[in-house]
Amino acid sequence: MNYSLLNIINMSRIILLFSFVFSITTLNAQQKISYLLNKKEDTNKVTIQITFDALPASDANLVIPRSAPGTYILTNYIAFVDDVVGYTTTGKQLQGMIGDGSFFTFGESNEPLNKVSYTVDIEKMEIDLLDASTSSKAREDYMGLFGYSVFGFIEGMEAEAINLRINTDPSWPIFSTLRPDTNRNFGTDTYEVENYAALVDAQYLLGKGVQVIRVEEAQIPLFVAAYGETTIDLEGIGNQGLLSLQKLGDYFGYIPMPHYTLVYEFLKPLSERHDYGFNMEHLNSMTAHRDISEEYNPNRGLGTIIHHMGHSWIPLRSWGEGYRPFSWQVAPLVETIWLNEGFIWYVSFQQILSDEARLNWWKSNMDNAPDFIKTKTLKELSLLGSTQYASDFRIGKNLFSRGALMAYDLDEYIQKQTNGKKSFKDAILGLLNWSKDNQRAFKYNEIEPIMSKATSVDLKPIWNKWQNPPE
């Protein structure tokens, strides 16, 4: 074989290999879903555009979330969505129609649909939703967005990787808890996101009113991002965040978050009925909302930060059925809210802060509960709290109080049975390690055996005691 023929064969192989790699790369790129968020100029609205691999229009449902992990409430976010349009691959526009639930359909046509767009009215959302922890905000020089309040998804594509692009006023810096940094891009920014759950778990803060600092000497990158209609003590919040991170790291023995952001809003109430008291936890961040008519002292916020940061361990990285994978169209029934909340209340206030007064408060919450709460088993009360945890906070308080007091009893029992060699910490680390190894939700009847194995103590007596209504 002559050299010319050999060169031609080798070159053909190289071209064939390159074509194969290019085809695979192109296929992978096509599998990503593209999201575009535009902050509409001179309005308090955003437009969302989702581009995806084409499917028949009759099969396309645009789902608008009704709930999110840890919210334990139904929120009618679809009420703030307008101008829903689907686009076929030929450019034809199909009007979105509200379905039987929290979703839009695009008719019975088999034409290939590969793009949808819609508008979200952030100002109307904040006016209508009285709980600040459920609503995005639009103020002067500021727009603060909860991911799940603005981003819908094409049903069946929740697991796909996402390319997100945000466009706003060229003078506005953009911050997201997806990739926190003090050096913010102005006007536009892009993000690579693992899936829909990661997209909507994040917060997006746009505008010249947003202040960002990085807290030095933290074990992981730690940030404070805040908007205030008053003077803000970012350093004070950061100091409490650093102390919380150190205490939680010392207790659990490790930190699972790659980075963490404390997101704060200090706002003038829209009305007397608007509530700025509740906070919200996320995988790598927390959000807090404060009424500027009430004096804020960062030194009194340590317990709140420890508690919500603590949720990055439980339940965000060790969880029961219903919490994850999440059913975005409903508020799923969760049997373990008492564990999600109560165990972290116990770790935060009893173990880390040594706040003995909390024990009496938890007991008083149970003693003073109405009969419709007192007569519920632990599982029944958790199911009730799946949609009404904060709307009737007597339910929420009794759930975390029962869970915290169960943790207290478990701790006393474990230490007694092991002569102080083990404690509740071993039980909760057992849950975390089990979740890391199994990468799924634990079933209700698996909880006690996991904790018993981790502590080498039969915990059924304490477990069974707390499953029943209080005596």
How would you describe the overall organization of this protein?
The protein is an alpha+beta fold and 471 residues long. Helices cover 37% and strands 23% of the residues. The protein is built from 14 helices and 21 strands. It has helices at residues 3-31, 122-128, 147-150, 196-201, 234-252, 302-310, 337-352, 357-367, 371-374, 378-388, 393-417, 424-438, 447-455, 460-467, and strands spanning 33-39, 45-56, 62-63, 81-88, 93-95, 97-98, 103-105, 112-121, 137-139, 142-146, 153-154, 162-167, 173-176, 185-186, 188-193, 203-206, 210-215, 222-228, 260-267, 280-282, 285-291. A seven-stranded mixed sheet has the order 5-4-8-2-1-12-15. A five-stranded antiparallel sheet has the order 9-10-16-13-14. A hairpin with a 4-residue loop joins β6 (97-98) and β7. α6 packs across α7 and α8 (357-367) packs across α11 (393-417). The longest helix has 29 residues, at 3-31. The chain is globular. The termini are far apart. The model is unreliable at 1-10 and 12-30 (pLDDT under 50).
